[in-house]
Design goal:
41% helix, binds NADPH dihydro-nicotinamide-adenine-dinucleotide phosphate
Length: 254
């Protein structure tokens, strides 16, 4: 029989960025369910109340704190505060992300900077601060995307940020393996969240997209729980530098 304690995160301490809703909230709660104490961040700490409540109602420890990942000057202090409060840091989930669908001929520098600063620069400096706090090793999980693998029109800054995040995942994995820090990524397929809601308002888009997904349905947030716990836990102890699509077979079939 498999040793399920491999997946147990009891005694682990995690920081999840962008945990006020959607995928970040789901992953923060999944890590807490598996036993981790979790620092949860978003730009507005008040928006984290629901996530904190979910975690505490499970008997877990949640530490909400404000962090705008575009502002590098905030990052080190926030990560240190989380590590101090939780008694260390062993898991970072770089989930905070934004998208502004725009035809490339209309992309402004402000749009480019907002997306790249949030999705890529912020993730790098969170990883850097977390690695300094991970004195006993750890696991970093970056949220990539299908745009990490395929070119999607009108998503060029976003796709550039997520492809960059894959490069970052691989390079940090190679550099920090001697520190005992593993760095992996999850590439969610199509999940209905605040970020993607505008697409789901379009019935024709839904039908067309669903037809391209071999499993015939969009992702449910709970579909991400297993991979997040796996990558955070000892169960993935010999895996680093990899990106795992969770997409109902979409990438495998195009
Ligand atoms: P949501 O828009 O639902 O949530 C985004 C989260 O990021 C919120 O908590 C938001 O909080 C936070 N955030 C945004 N900007 C910043 C910032 N500058 N600093 C700190 N936190 C910030 O998005 P999703 O849950 O859909 O996406 C989560 C991640 O998953 C993103 O990285 C996204 O690119 C990725 N992803 C999503 C897919 C999907 O289908 N939904 C598919 C593939 C990847 P607040 O605004 O309060 O700061």
């Amino acid at each position: 029989m498999a040793d399920l304690s491999l997946f147990d995160l009891t005694g682990q301490t995690a920081l999840v960025t962008g945990a006020s809703r959607g995928i970040g909230q789901e992953i923060a709660v999944a890590l807490a369910r598996a036993g981790a104490d979790v620092a949860i961040t978003a730009r507005d700490a008040a928006s984290l109340a629901a996530c904190a409540e979910l975690i505490t109602s499970l008997g877990g420890t949640a530490y909400p704190l404000a962090l705008d990942v575009r502002d590098v000057s905030q990052i080190s202090g926030a990560v240190t505060a989380a590590a101090d409060r939780l008694g260390g840091l062993s898991i970072l989930v770089n989930n905070a992300g934004v998208e502004q669908v725009t035809p490339s001929l209309e992309v402004t520098e402000a749009i480019w900077d907002n997306i790249l600063d949030t999705n890529l620069k912020g993730a790098f400096f969170c990883a850097q601060a977390a690695a300094k706090a991970m004195t006993a090793g750890g696991a970093i999980i970056n949220l990539c995307s299908l745009t990490t693998e395929v070119g999607i029109p009108t998503a060029v800054p976003y796709g550039s940020s997520k492809t960059g995040l894959l490069g970052m995942t691989r390079a940090l994995a190679a550099e920090w393996a001697p520190l005992g820090i593993r760095v992996n990524a999850i590439a969610p397929g199509y999940f209905r969240t605040a970020m993607t809601e505008e697409f789901y308002q379009n019935e024709a888009w839904q039908m067309a997209m669903q037809a391209k997904i071999p499993m015939g349905r969009f992702g449910a947030l709970a579909d991400l729980d297993g991979i997040a716990v796996f990558l955070a836990s000892r169960a993935s102890a010999y895996i680093t530098g990899q990106c795992f699509p969770v997409d109902g077979g979409f990438l495998a079939s195009i």
